[in-house]
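Record minuted for completeness.

…
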Amino acid sequence: MYKRKIIKNIEKYLDKKEIIILLWARQVGKTSIMKYFFEKLKKQKLWLNLDKFSDCEKFSSSENIINYLKINDFDLEKKIFLFVDEFQYCKNSSLIFKNIYDEYENIKIIASGSSSMDIKDKIQESLAGRKKIFYIYPLDLEEFISWKFILSWKKDDLINFKKFSEIDWKLEKIATDYYKYLYEFMIFGWYPKTVLEKEKIDILENIFDLYLKKDILDFLNIKNIDWFKKIVSYLAINNWWQINYTDLSNFSWVDVNTLKSYLEILEETFIVKQVKPFFTNKNKEIVKVPKIYFLDNWVRNYFIKNFLLELDLRVDKWELFEAVVLQELIKNNIWEIKYWRTKSWVEVDFIVDNVINFDILEVKFKNKLKNSDFRGLEILKKEYKEKVRNSYLVWKDRDLWSISIFDLIKN
């Protein structure tokens, strides 16, 4: 297994009492991470996959689990690791977790789920003070590039990667490969299996079909899947634009209230992210309309039927790059992200809201910068000079053969 960065953080909680919960969409590697720990641990352990009916029966109550452990000669006086994969399929899972946590000191629970509103609400309410949630994001750029170089066996070219905000290399000999991998990252996304396999489009189609069947049709019980697909298609075509609910309602034949509930489902299942506007002056600034970004570019490319890797031929290359920057922020656990736009169309792509102050970022997918590229940042800094902590321009610098694609360049 190619190790993920998150593993070190999870390891710190193996000896603690809290229930470890791994959340995110399907196929991001939650099960692989759990299997890594399952195989590594030498103590008593039990694996339950609630996608299987037989395992669901064992997990139907805390009493059933304890009885199963006793029948199979587990020593309840010693440490037991209980691994529960896809726990969302048991409606009472959070209550069962709570009962085991409260009554059995020696049983450590490690569970995974494909997040939804239902799961989120239940674990927050029932497991308050009893859990540690880890979001298992798809590969970030650092992991993706590491995996690609390992797969290509260029061991001499392996880099000791630094943090996202500190990447700064001038290594001309790997620049070409770096750009090739960056473009693949922008087009096909960063689900682990797509990095490892060549038939990427087939894999992505299977992932989305599984998402529709397991999460949307079966679990969330959405009746009209065609309406749902129409909404995703509209968002793919209008990626990152301010959303017009009336236009989207007319396009998808769904009333506005149902439409908003579908958008909430897409966000809670980690398909899209709504970025709301930042404002303090309603007369000058946009105040209501959110922008919608896909949390993985491949879903968007899947719906517009465009997996072309030659970015120079794509009119949407800067949109894809902007989405990647947002996705990288989220994978660094930065969620409070907004955008800023005045009614006179001066804008800044992202504001990271730190409550008492904020950082601002403008994204440019171009080789050379102009003074006008800094205009939005400068106006926003002037307007909120007491609040802006840092301002950054995130850009692509091919002319210098730098592979510091994500340099955060302070103005």
